[in-house]
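User: Can you fold this complex?
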Amino acid sequence: MQNDIIEPEILSGHKVRAFFTGKYTGSDLSMLSKVSGLSGDRMYLPIQKHTDKIITIINNMEQLVGDAVVTGQKDILLGVKTADCVPILLYDKKRHVAAAVHAGWRGTAASILKKTVDLLKIDFQSDPLDILMAIGPCIRQCCYTVDIDVIDAVSAATGDGDYCMQRDGKYYIDLQSANRQQAILSGMNKDHIQVIDECTFCNPDKYFSYRFLKEEAGRQGGFIAVL
Ligand SMILES: [Zn+2]
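Assistant: Here's the predicted assembly.
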């Protein structure tokens, strides 16, 4: 599967390069360089720890702990690595600011997406109605069984919605829908949000899935650069 790049339509036609990868491209810097045309020293992948920390890149490219990255600088490829968690890409078409967010259940429960939109509003004067967003491949409601504690934690951050289900006595959660709901609650337009309907666990040939491969799993991700 050599062409495993997904370029979300919602972000096409703007001064931004945005894509999700599969297993083949993964999160290897030389592969990302081929796809983006940017060299490794123009890429920023944070040290992810399921936090709600957001890193703003201005001049300093020092690698820090965080699970969301924001920049208004041109030609810097921001990225988050995932293998079941949700990669989310945002672009403010008026302010020309991009963000990449890593939202697993912990990040979703910590409202990392909402906090990223808040940072865009405060630090970049973004109007949420100008923000376009793509939610990438992850483990979806078909496969993502969770404990009730996870449902409770995500619900506390997200409010009531149709992103939790129960089947055969098991709980399932859809983190794409939960993050979509958080974005709408942050003031974004639902028509500016694209969800990629692909489950990493259902497609182990195409995607790394932590639940499928355990410790063997590599990482794909979501990547975005302002041009
Ligand atoms: Zn699935």
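The first strand starts at residue 16 and ends at 20. The pocket of zinc ion is lined by residues 140, 142-143, 199, 201-202 (CB under 6 Å).
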